[in-house]
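Saturday, quiet lab. Running sequence design on the structure tokens for the scaffold JK sent over.
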């Protein structure tokens, strides 16, 4: 099984109104002219913009994704959005288990695992987020936390090429702080081992993204670390220019 190309994904979080669709169009055009080389580029805008963004991206290699999905395909869940709805709106990916959802919406590994299954059942690829808090890293528990989250959040029956893991240390998100290259290589190597434990012989095809304060200034260094197959970018993905500078690493 061959490994998918690197993935540079933008998570807009709760940012963006229709004006922001210009940024999607700019990224679309930059990707079309080879600005990300061999990498796959993905934008996960708020759900309110998905259909309009999909119309702009028709026929473009720029992919779109959701930021979360419900574990059920439909039903009485006011305010929630299901994986089939995201697919119908033009998404091909969905982020699940982001730390902002694990912390702010009390999502357990079991919930994340069910959401991952729902995403796969709907024909989406899932980006499953893991990562330790600052106290957990200080206590020397970073690897154990990520290992537990992977074991609990990834369904064994999932096809490894349709899952990407995003390692996002909680303390690096939006803080301007990043782990050292040694820490990143250690964590990504550890995650790779865990993936081989889930899928013996096939854990090498799953992409492992780094996320947390990825900026144009540090992207080349972060993306060149061993077992880093791309990035999940928050703040810097809101600007097409900054986002394409990051994706441009793969040109
Ligand atoms: P920042 O790039 O803004 O630190 O956010 C990272 C993130 O949470 C992406 O999902």
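Result came back. Writing it out in full:
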């Amino acid at each position: 099984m061959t490994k998918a190309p690197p993935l540079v994904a933008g998570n807009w979080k709760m940012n963006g109104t229709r004006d922001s669709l210009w940024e999607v169009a700019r990224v679309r055009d930059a990707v079309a002219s080879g600005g990300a080389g061999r990498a796959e580029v993905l934008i996960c805008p708020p759900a309110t913009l998905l259909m309009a963004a999909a119309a702009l991206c028709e026929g473009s290699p720029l992919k779109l994704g959701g930021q979360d999905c419900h574990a059920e395909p439909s039903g009485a869940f006011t305010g929630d959005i299901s994986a089939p709805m995201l697919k119908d709106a033009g998404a091909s990916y969905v982020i699940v288990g982001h730390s902002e959802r694990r912390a702010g919406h009390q999502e357990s590994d079991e919930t994340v695992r069910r959401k991952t299954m729902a995403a796969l059942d709907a024909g989406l690829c899932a980006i499953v987020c893991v990562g330790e808090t600052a106290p957990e890293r200080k206590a020397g528990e970073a690897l154990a936390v990520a290992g537990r989250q992977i074991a609990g959040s990834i369904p064994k029956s999932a096809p490894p090429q349709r899952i990407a893991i995003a390692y996002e240390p909680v303390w690096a998100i939006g803080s301007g702080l990043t782990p050292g290259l040694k820490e990143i290589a250690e964590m990504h190597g550890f995650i790779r081992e865990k993936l081989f434990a889930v899928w013996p012989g096939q854990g090498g095809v799953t992409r492992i993204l780094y996320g947390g304060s990825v900026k144009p200034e540090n992207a080349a260094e972060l993306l060149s670390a061993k077992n880093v197959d791309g990035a999940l970018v928050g703040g810097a993905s809101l600007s097409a220019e900054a986002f394409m500078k990051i994706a441009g690493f793969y040109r």
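Notes for JK: The pocket of 1,3-dihydroxyacetonephosphate is lined by residues 11, 98, 168, 173-174, 211-214, 232-236 (CB under 6 Å). The two ends are 24 Å apart (CA to CA). Ask whether to fix the surface positions before the next round.
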